[in-house]
Specification:
Largest sheet of chain B: 6 strands, mixed
Strand content of chain B: over 45%
Structural class of chain A: mainly beta
Largest sheet of chain A: 7 strands, mixed
Order of helices and strands of chain B: EEEEEEEEEEEE
Number of helices of chain B: 0
Number of helices of chain A: 0
Shape of chain B: globular
Oligomer: heterodimer
Helix content of chain B: under 10%
């Protein structure tokens, strides 16, 4: 089946640093990639949608300058959390889709900001 | 706006018994419907989808779901639950002509299968 690889799986860093999370579709070309945030015991909150080669579309309330998304190719999207603070600590999950096929998800990145 | 409701926060079932996880949806037009499962500290794994055709959809790991248009429901079922089925289950809907084709998730239902 379709495989989405997300890296790193866990990151701990100091407040004020920037963190980059990678999301790769390993065996298909992802025309659309999605970034979600999940709080403990809650559902997924869509942060942004990106199509290859174009700017990401952010959901209301998500700061685009805080969460930089790059979708440079059909197999790679990155999320950079800039100047991270403790309130940015969360579980971030990427998802990729080819056309109208089901979305496939990465294993998530647990981000802890000290 | 589209929405998904999973009325049960948690479902407890004994191993070997049937498992049902409920889902109702609201969307304009015909829906695409999905079920995903999430294990601790992992992303979501795709279980099954309804696009068109037979209302009973069979998916991975022995799960199936029945699309009921009149009741706007898409309940997930498994005839005989396993302890390893204990996880968090999400129902999701996407309108066929939604701008951006975004998935909307339900709040999730935690399934606990006891030996």
């Amino acid at each position: 089946g379709a495989v989405v690889s997300q890296h790193p799986s866990w990151v701990i860093c100091k407040s004020g640093t920037s963190v980059k999370i990678e999301c790769r579709s390993l065996d298909f070309q992802a025309t659309t990639m999605f970034w979600y945030r999940q709080f403990p015991k809650q559902s997924l909150m869509l942060m942004a949608t990106s199509n290859e080669g174009s700017k990401a579309t952010y959901e209301q309330g998500v700061e685009k300058d805080k969460f930089l998304i790059n979708h440079a190719s059909l197999t790679l999207s990155t999320l950079t959390v800039t100047s991270a603070h403790p309130e940015d600590s969360s579980f971030y999950i990427c998802s990729a889709r080819a056309g109208l096929q089901p979305q496939h998800f990465g294993d998530g990145t647990r981000l802890s900001i000290l | 706006a589209q929405s998904v409701a999973q009325p049960e926060d948690q479902v407890n079932v004994a191993e070997g018994n049937p498992l049902t996880v409920k889902c109702t949806y609201s969307v304009s037009g015909n829906p695409y419907l999905f079920w995903y499962v999430q294990y601790p500290n992992r992303g979501l794994q795709f279980l099954l989808k309804y696009i068109t055709g037979d209302n009973l959809v069979k998916g991975s790991y022995g799960f199936e779901a029945e699309f009921n248009k009149s009741q706007t429901s898409f309940h997930l079922k498994k005839p005989s639950a396993l302890v390893s089925d204990s996880a968090l289950y999400f129902c999701a809907v996407r309108a066929r002509k939604a701008a951006g084709n975004k998935l909307t998730f339900g709040g999730g239902t935690r399934v606990l299968v006891k030996p």
